[in-house]
Write a structure and sequence with these properties.
heterodimer, A: alpha/beta, Elongation Factor Tu (Ef-tu), domain 3, Rossmann fold, Ubiquitin-like (UB roll), six-stranded antiparallel β-sheet, 18 strands, about 30% strand, B: alpha+beta, Pnp Oxidase, Chain A, seven-stranded antiparallel β-sheet
Chain lengths: ~300, ~200
Amino acid sequence: MQKTILDRVERVAGDVVSLVLRGDEGPLEPWEPGAHIDLALPNWLTRQYSLCGDPADRSAYRIAVRHDPLSRGGSEYVHLFLQPGRTLSVSSPRNHFPLRPAPEYLFLAGGIGITPMVPMLRAAVASGAAATLVYAGRSARTMPFAAELAATYGERVRLFDHGRPDLAALAAEFPAAEVYCCGPASMLAAAEAVFPRVFTERFQPTRRTFGPDTAFEVVCARSGQTIQVPPDESLLDALTHAGRPVPSACREGVCGSCEIAVVEGEPEHRDDIGAPEGRMYACVSRARSPRLVLDL
Amino acid sequence: MAEVRARLGEPEAMIEAKLGDHIDRHARRFIAHSPFLTLATADAAGRADCSPRGDYPGFVKVLDEHTLALPDRTGNKIADSFRNIAENDGVGLLFFVPGMRETLRVNGSAYVTDEPDVLARMQTEAKEPMLAIVVEVEQVYFHCGRALIRSRLWDPASQALADELPSAGEIAAELMNADPVMFEQILEAGYRKLY
């Protein structure tokens, strides 16, 4: 974890604040557009937020947080109780949404999904690529950074402060663009239905149905311990109950904190990240084979 | 009460002034940092009961300045509090913040709910409680720190007191004339499964 000081809290939309977290021990770890950090809050909760500042500025991270009316305690804490000057621990940046080199980009952002897109658009424009940002929100006052983006990038930015953009028309207009989408589940689903290839970042898990949860066995390769995972328990919980807890945060397969290396056996991946080869996320994923050997 | 009042004298004016009827910003901040409270209830005949409630700080949700909601987590399933609330809606809550000498008292009337929007806010480790207790707040006040100062409650050295007690497993084993090691294991396994 890296130690930061909360430098500034600034309202950037009706229900969104931006936080500037200044590194307290020299430069912060570098990051690429699309990356997010875990923020450890004083109320013991850890939440993931996309970095929306400038990667060239190693002195501070910037994030933006929407106050969720059904907050479980993360965004509510940020909005009501965090005060400038406080020390906060943040993780190393992780990136499940990297910007791949391309001659042309189409960025689709919905609401608070704009956060990773801010540095992505900047990097795309700096690379000399053709780039268009389509940014939709419920109303202008709920759309952080809209005015600045429009002022900086002019016609490259198209704002929809009511009504949805016509994705089919955009697909016809930008047939060769690499498409990146971050926003509510409905927008991601619509984009995935319209564009042949779209890179997505989710803040909430997709609702999908899987086969029945079955029991399996895991072997911890390093300790030799064998642990049974019953059908009604996650691998993460089974490890915790067996006295082998692994770090975790979102518990819904979106943040990647609970990544484990798989030595043997076939995991059944249920995450929204896209686990790299030989890795799995213990919070949601299970097993196809009766036994998994894990690097634990 | 007249006799007690005669012995103690009248309460200090400052203390009376702090009696509030809603969750102000100081009370809200206190609740947001409190991982533990005691919940007092009573049955129709007024027989009282008190039980501990704990989770991450802020586990009690402030729905508005007159309403709180407490998750009901896996406990002993005796449901004394629920039975009492069904008979008698009066409740008293005492919130603690570790390290803080003052406590927060909230009194009001309660009912049990399974309202999805309330339960959704209480999701922990991807699990929602089955039920929540909603408290309609009538009295809110900070309680002075003397009891916690005298009890040295937050002094780490005070934890040595626990070494003088038999474990819960040992007590249960003695009452039921069973193997204490087995009881201890059952208890510890249960304690690992908190949600």
